[in-house]
Design goal:
The protein is α+β, with helices and mostly antiparallel strands. Strand 6 (307-309) and strand 7 (312-314) form a beta hairpin. It is globular and about 60 Å long. The N and C termini lie far apart (59 Å). The protein has 19 helices and 10 strands. The strands form 3 sheets. The chain has a 5-stranded mixed beta sheet with strand order 1-2-8-5-3. The protein has a single domain, classed as Cytochrome p450, CATH 1.10.630. Helix 9 (120-134) packs antiparallel against helix 11 (149-159) and helix 11 runs antiparallel to helix 15.
């Protein structure tokens, strides 16, 4: 069989791959759906059914891969960043049963679908304030002015962070994201230094705030996490890990859902017009935008035992990348997968993950997406891309723009 695979298909950080990773995924998925990437020293799993299987087989594909993530460090640096590694190991997404259930249970209890929809009026009010602030400006940045600010405010209020501390915690969260987003052998000592300083500072901050909530509980996630007499309460590194998980996952998921989603709609004026005409399609639009160009492109796993998948022999200890973005464009699962269709049903997209690691804040992100798209399209007529080049974040895991320069024709209906 003639192959069109080239070494360039292994460079997911090239400008071409960052601008359109789906062209790369198409070739890999068709020709080598369980692909060894020598640049990343990892296997890539790209088909929808294989992705679902990998995300549910915790005996074979393990989430706790901190050792592999920091394995390139010297023995001295490994000891130096032990605190960073310790907190990372206590985060929900890096654990499998039985520890995973212990960490997830109190978070899930505070982020139910019912509670997410109860937050809708507040989320819509925050969104309206953000859009109102730019309504009289003919040009703005969709990332800085809306996509970034909305989840920072929402997640801070959800956790129970003091209003005056939002910017402080946001800065720590950004340093942590930079440390884990570098990924594997590409993570720098400088990024880890900032990341470790951030998690240590957040540990002190959330410990102090937890004491306040134990004494005077409020209607927020932190109060639920440290409730006196509750066997599911958490403390120490578990508390830090949970709070950091909620903050960074909520920020990245919603920020890029809004940024990537606005870009996709503006590049598909027929779908933009349809959504303006039929705002009741907003929930379906959010699902389709997550499928079409979702935030989370891959999740990492570590093979716990030897396994053969589609003829490829994965050895125990090998790193594995489960490619959510590739699965969401799999033609065996989605008709015309490269077409944006906000009426698509069913839509088994895996942008929020699958199984026990399904994003606990998915419904909160959905509500924020619906609020952002609905408010922007209603309040900003003539919305369009400004005449400026787009630059994608150099990140294989979280797909998002550095900036989204937009223009509009003036404030519309409130």
């Amino acid at each position: 069989m003639t192959t069109t695979l080239t070494p360039e298909h292994d460079d997911l950080l090239s400008p071409a791959a960052l601008a359109d990773p789906y062209a790369v995924y198409d070739v890999l998925r068709a020709e080598d759906p369980v692909h060894w990437n020598p640049r990343l020293d990892a296997w890539m799993i790209l088909r929808h059914d294989d992705v679902l299987a990998a995300l549910t087989d915790h005996d074979t594909f393990r989430s706790d891969r901190t050792g592999a993530f920091m394995g390139h460090l010297s023995e001295e640096d490994s000891r130096r960043f032990a605190a960073f590694a310790a907190v990372r190991r206590r985060m929900i997404m890096y654990n499998d049963p039985p520890v995973h259930a212990t960490l997830r249970r109190p978070v899930q209890r505070g982020m139910t679908v019912r509670q997410a929809h109860a937050m809708r009026p507040r989320i819509e009010a925050i969104t309206a304030e953000l859009v109102e602030a730019i309504a009289d400006r003919p040009r703005f940045d969709g990332i800085r002015d809306i996509g970034f600010r909305l989840p920072v405010i929402v997640n801070s209020e959800l956790i129970g962070i003091r209003p005056g501390d939002t910017e402080l915690v946001k800065g720590w969260t950004e340093d942590f994201i930079a440390a884990i987003s570098a990924g594997g052998a590409n993570v720098s000592v400088e990024a880890l230094e900032r990341g470790q300083a951030a998690v240590l500072a957040m540990g002190e901050y959330f410990a102090a705030l937890a004491e306040e909530r134990r004494a005077e509980p409020r209607d927020d996630l932190l109060s639920g996490l440290v409730r006196r007499g509750d066997p599911a309460s958490v403390s120490g590194q578990d508390l830090t890990g949970v709070c950091v998980s909620v903050m960074f996952a909520g920020m990245e998921t919603t920020l890029n859902l809004i940024g990537n989603g606005l870009l996709a709609l503006l590049r598909h004026p027929d779908q933009l017009a349809l959504l303006r005409e039929r705002p009741e399609l907003l929930p379906d639009a959010v699902e389709e935008l997550m499928r079409y160009d979702g935030t989370l492109q891959l999740v990492g796993r570590l093979a716990a035992r030897d396994v053969t998948l589609r003829g490829s022999r994965i050895r125990a200890g090998d790193k594995v990348l489960v490619m959510l973005g590739a699965a969401n464009r799999d033609p065996e699962r989605f008709a015309d997968p490269h077409r944006l269709d906000i009426t698509r049903r069913p839509n088994p997209q895996v942008g929020f993950g699958h199984g026990i690691h399904y994003c606990p804040g998915a419904e909160v992100s959905r509500v924020q997406g619906e609020a952002a798209f609905g408010t922007v399209l209603r309040r900003l007529p003539g919305l369009r891309l400004d005449d400026a080049p787009l630059e994608w974040q150099p990140n294989m895991s979280f797909r998002g723009l550095r900036r989204l320069p937009l223009a509009h024709d003036g404030a519309g209906a409130p």
